[in-house]
Amino acid sequence: MKNYILTIGTLLFLISCGKSEKSIESEKSQNKFTVNLEESEIKEVETTIYNYENDSDFSRELDLALLAKVASNLKIKYEDITIDNSSSITYNNKITFFVVSYKADTKEKGPGINDEIDNYFERKYLFVNKSDGKILDQELDKNLCFFDDEVGQPSKTYIFKNLIQLNETTNGIGLSTEFSSGSRIGLWSEQKFTIITLVNNKIKKLLYEYPMRKTQGESNVGGSFQMEVLETAISVSNKKTNGFFDLKVAKTFSYEEEVEEDLENGIEGKVAPVKIKKEAERIQYNGSIYSFKADDKYRFLLDYN
Questions:
Q1: d(CA 33, CA 39)
Q2: DSSP symbols for 106-164
Q3: Smallest Cα–Cα separation from 85: which of 121, 49, 52?
Q4: What's the sign of the alpha-carbon dihedral 87, 101, 71, 134?
């Protein structure tokens, strides 16, 4: 009888242990499922850098006292700096970033109109010490250099007020520069977006001249015109590629056409409905830069392709 009771007790103990082990395994499995579920439910979050529907928030800084020190270190005359086309932003508590436009020595640049020497302007990016204006690094952007009377010259390069967080340790500086034909007949213009940062006291262009806005078309300088416009919204995602957050671009292409009435020549007035086409693009860091494929095709003005 004692042996019988002992055997039953042993069986009950083993069954109890088995249930406990199954319970532990079940709990582990449930916890693992919960973790995987949480990971799959992480939503992509975007921080807006630029949106064509809103006014851009550009830096209003320009430290003139520090700029005077920078001019001395650049070996250029302070009076040769075009203040209206220069700007700055505080990068951190020790460093300031400048975009400096200045009149350069044109004697070796070639003649201008009517065999006269045009003023020639150069534009540089600079990171400098806030204390003494010592230049940490500088880079001349040749695409932003121009003669005084040159057609299609760049406008002022604006610096976005807020730094762009590209990962946990890297902040970029956003720049916007517009080019235009200056013609009332040709309606071409292009606004380009660049991101610059400082790595080991060296300037690095992470993104260069991405088209953030573009217009193309023609007008008769009266009431008739046709025009295609590209407008964008650019944001930083919380999704990473090669250690840097992805950039997301929402593109809106629109086309407008209007014909002015001309009764003498039998031309009826016409206002065509605005045509809209939307596209999206993700720009990823390839280990060196944010790489994107140039897209010069128009969606509506096919004759311009």
A1: 10
A2: -TTT---GGGPPPPEEEEEEEEEETTT--EEEEEE-GGG-EETT-TT-B---EEBSS-E
A3: 121
A4: positive
Within 8 A by CB and 6+ apart from 225, the residues are 187, 217, 218, 219, 256, 257, 258
Q: In a structure prediction context, what are the per-residue pLDDT tens digits for the chain, which is 305 residues long?
A: 444 444 444 444 444 545 444 444 444 444 444 444 444 456 888 899 999 988 888 999 999 999 999 999 999 999 999 999 999 999 999 999 999 999 998 665 555 556 666 789 999 999 999 999 999 999 999 999 998 878 888 999 999 999 999 999 999 999 999 999 888 889 999 999 999 999 999 999 999 999 999 999 999 877 788 999 999 999 999 999 999 999 999 999 999 999 887 777 777 778 888 999 999 999 999 999 999 999 999 999 998 88
- 270-293 in b/e form (b: 16+ CB < 10 A) is eeeeeeeeeeeeebbbeeeebebe
- 144: tokens are 């932003």
